């Protein structure tokens, strides 16, 4: 089953349709909750508790960062020990409520990414999503350089931060050599995924048939209660759903 890449323009239009009261009827809170749940399930798949519980979640100021905050909450309930680095907080009330939820679970926030990185087992890159257009502004250049040089596995949310949504990694500067070990594409892969070489998941089990058809998407066959599905790149460079018996992982 081939999976179509979704352009930034179409991704924004699709989100608008999902939140249109007469089309999708979803709220931003609901979509962010399901996105963050998908991220947490991708972590469970790629990095089981036996491989280390300490997860550093690096969040940006927008919806991608919100997905990371939600994921941190779910990971805590799974038995992981998440810590959040949130250098530029979102101003929307939604993000403040997500922070409160983490505080009530005693999930720590850190101001020292370098020290926290040295004692973490996995990093979630939830800084920038499909709407990122560059250039990088402080403090994110140095943050992405640290992630790029990290000695632990990295899972990027929707797109590796610093990558152009169409043309992939920048030609120079922070992110030029950034290749996370895993990526979770939300709703559908974005065009930059053709440059990605790691383990790839798709999450976002909320599309209706009508909306999927409008954007030419084929929803993968999620199994049971799973919110994520693993995909692979075939010899023609197409991304396809990998049933369990065919998965190479």
UniProtKB/TrEMBL annotation:
Cofactor binding notes: Binds 1 potassium ion per subunit.
Gene Ontology molecular function terms on file: metal ion binding; NAD(P)HX epimerase activity; nucleotide binding
Residues that, per the record, bind K(+): 64, 125, 161
Main localisation: cytoplasm
Cofactor: K(+)
Keywords of the record: Cytoplasm, Isomerase, Metal-binding, Mitochondrion, NAD, NADP, Nucleotide-binding, Potassium
Function: Catalyzes the epimerization of the S- and R-forms of NAD(P)HX, a damaged form of NAD(P)H that is a result of enzymatic or heat-dependent hydration. This is a prerequisite for the S-specific NAD(P)H-hydrate dehydratase to allow the repair of both epimers of NAD(P)HX.
Domain YjeF N-terminal: from-to ranges: 11-219
Pfam families (alphabetical): YjeF_N
EC number: 5.1.99.6
Subcellular location: Cytoplasm; Mitochondrion
Organism: Penicillium oxalicum (strain 114-2 / CGMCC 5302)
Annotated catalysed reactions: (6R)-NADHX = (6S)-NADHX; (6R)-NADPHX = (6S)-NADPHX
Protein name, per record: NAD(P)H-hydrate epimerase
Similarity comment text for this entry: Belongs to the NnrE/AIBP family.
GO CC terms of this entry: mitochondrion
Signal peptide extent: none
HAMAP family tied to this protein: NADHX_epimerase
Broad class of enzyme this protein falls into: isomerase
InterPro entries xref list: YjeF_N_dom (IPR004443), YjeF_N_dom_sf (IPR036652), YJEFN_prot_NAXE-like (IPR032976)
Record: residues binding (6S)-NADPHX: 63-67, 129-135, 158
């Amino acid at each position: 089953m081939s999976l179509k890449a979704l352009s930034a323009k179409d991704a924004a239009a699709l989100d608008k349709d999902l939140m249109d009261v007469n089309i999708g009827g979803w709220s931003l809170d609901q979509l962010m909750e399901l996105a963050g749940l998908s991220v947490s399930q991708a972590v469970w798949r790629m990095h089981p508790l036996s491989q280390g519980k300490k997860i550093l979640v690096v969040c940006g100021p927008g919806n991608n960062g919100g997905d990371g905050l939600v994921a941190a909450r779910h990971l805590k309930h799974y038995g992981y020990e998440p810590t959040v680095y949130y250098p530029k907080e979102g101003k929307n009330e939604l993000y403040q409520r997500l922070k409160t939820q983490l505080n009530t679970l005693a999930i720590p926030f850190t101001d020292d990414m370098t020290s926290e990185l040295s004692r973490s087992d996995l990093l979630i890159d939830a800084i920038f999503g499909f709407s990122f257009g560059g250039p990088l502004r402080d403090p994110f250049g140095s943050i992405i350089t640290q992630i790029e040089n990290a000695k632990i596995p990295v899972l990027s949310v929707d797109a590796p931060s610093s990558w152009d949504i169409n043309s992939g990694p920048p030609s120079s500067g922070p992110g030029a050599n950034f290749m996370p070990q895993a990526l979770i594409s939300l709703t559908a892969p974005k065009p930059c995924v053709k440059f990605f070489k790691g383990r790839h998941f798709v999450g976002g089990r909320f599309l209706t048939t009508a909306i999927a058809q409008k954007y030419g998407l084929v929803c993968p066959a999620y199994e049971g209660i799973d919110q994520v599905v693993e995909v692979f790149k075939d010899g023609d460079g197409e991304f396809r759903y990998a049933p369990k018996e065919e998965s190479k992982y």
